[in-house]
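Minutes, project check-in
Item: structure for the 190-residue chain
Input as provided by the requester:
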Amino acid sequence: MKLKTKILFLSAAAFLSACATGPVLAPSGAFVAEPFTLNLNQNWSAFKRKSEGVQGAALTREGLDLNMLAVYMIEEGHDLKAGKGGTQEEVDYKSGMSQLELVEFATASLASLDMKNIEVSSVETTTFAGEDGVGFDFQGFYESGLAAKGIMRVSETDMGLAMGIYVAPTRVYYDRDAEEARRALTSARL
């Protein structure tokens, strides 16, 4: 192989590997999911996200449809799924939202992730990512019809809206990982 061909091949390989996305190990202990740091008691796989107006990571042990622990920072004028100017059904985040509006925004964010028939319970003021916010439990159904339960935490920060989510099927996965998820969300810091 000629030197020019080798250089071209190596350049293409380097470019493709830089574009590749996939999970990274989120080992137990402190894990950084920019701009958050979480303390994990067990290993997870993390899918980091940085797109226009949204950054953070979704963590899972068996697959995002089976259990998802996620932390996201959403900038003003953006939503969780589409980023800036989502679909008509989605609501963009605006600073200064009331607690009720934050719950409605968080519920709309879950719906944008294909959750259906979402019921909210146990709404309470809480601290998330070092800021005063609101938290609640929820239940609903995945688009496939599988029943799911979850935990949501949101707080307004100088960077935007901090959102923490844990969701898993009601049978097996939710109960198995809910306490670990609560601990991780409680530990979240910017």
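Outcome recorded: The chain has a mean pLDDT of 83.
No further action items on this chain.
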